[in-house]
Amino acid sequence: xxxxxxxxxxxxxxxxxxxxxxxxxxxxxxxxxxxxxxxxxxxxxxxxxxxxxxxxxxxxxxxxxxxxxxxxxxxxxxxxxxxxxxxxxxxxxxxxxxxxxxxxxxxxxxxxxxxxxxxxxxxxxxxxxxxxxxxxx
Amino acid sequence: xxxxxxxxxxxxxxxxxxxxxxxxxxxxxxxxxxxxxxxxxxxxxxxxxxxxxxxxxxxxxxxxxxxxxxxxxxxxxxxxxxxxxxxxxxxxxxxxxxxxxxxxxxxxxxxxxxxxxxxxxxxxxxxxxxxxxxxxxxxxxxxxxxxxxxxxxxxxxxxxxxxxxxxxxxxxxxxxxxxxxxxxxxxxxxxxxxxxxxxxxxxxxxxxxxxxxx
Lengths: 137, 214
What we know:
The structure holds 2 protein chains of 2 kinds.
Chain A: H1 13-35, H2 40-62, H3 65-68, H4 71-95, H5 114-117
Helix pairs in contact in A: 1-2
Chain B: H1 4-7, H2 18-53, H3 55-62, H4 67-92, H5 96-127, H6 145-179, H7 188-213
Helix pairs in contact in B: 2-6, 2-7, 3-6, 4-5, 4-7, 5-6, 6-7
């Protein structure tokens, strides 16, 4: 462990103000993107990318990850890894399910109506099995 | 100037040096923040699943979010993060008065955030845009719509609770700073309290686009 972790240069008010301006610009950008009415996929991608950049600015500079590093970065990276694992695997589960296993009226494949997903009905019901012979009293 | 005795940190006997002690405190705070991130991760997962299952319902419902208020609150929290970062900087410089003033400004920003959030909640309550079976908004119905408002109130509510806790933590830090507990050689509580506040900002940075802009 570096005993002189504080010895190198620290960020001052000027740098913090610059980060703040960056965050304001990114906030304005994400609202501007929202007003442009892109397709849903584009909007989700852009909004989450911008939010990730903003979070990166806050974590690296305001939360001192840039200066300190070491084990704090490892803790942050680990929690992010589990965030990705949880959201990714749960979404993958829902996306690959047989549709009836998802809640009713959900629409991940909205172009396919329920009726078309259902297995075809048989023309005639299968014949009933012969009743087992009754035991005489 | 406060007395130097009050501002000198105590070295616990199980640490070899003050640097090691500060390092351990910071790592402990980060471990706590990791659990907070995972707490919200579960809720973000719920959002992702229902957004995936009910894309139309979520898109229609989010048209009733108050984007102007949400954007204002984003700016409020970002600015409060700046004032906390500056408070930590001045605490390290040993300028306690500036630290106290900046922390007070931060707490005021937190209060402003909650007031604006209160206006938003009030509007949703009046309209009947409420979670689960309490949803009775005439203007919009359909699968997934009430789930949007359930998650909206759950996630922004838990975040609002964190804002309240953060304001409490920063108040305690500000009182200690005003008392002269911190100096150039010891300002760990300011830094750790600030980390908590930054995490609150970090979570809002994701809540804002997810609930207002998508």
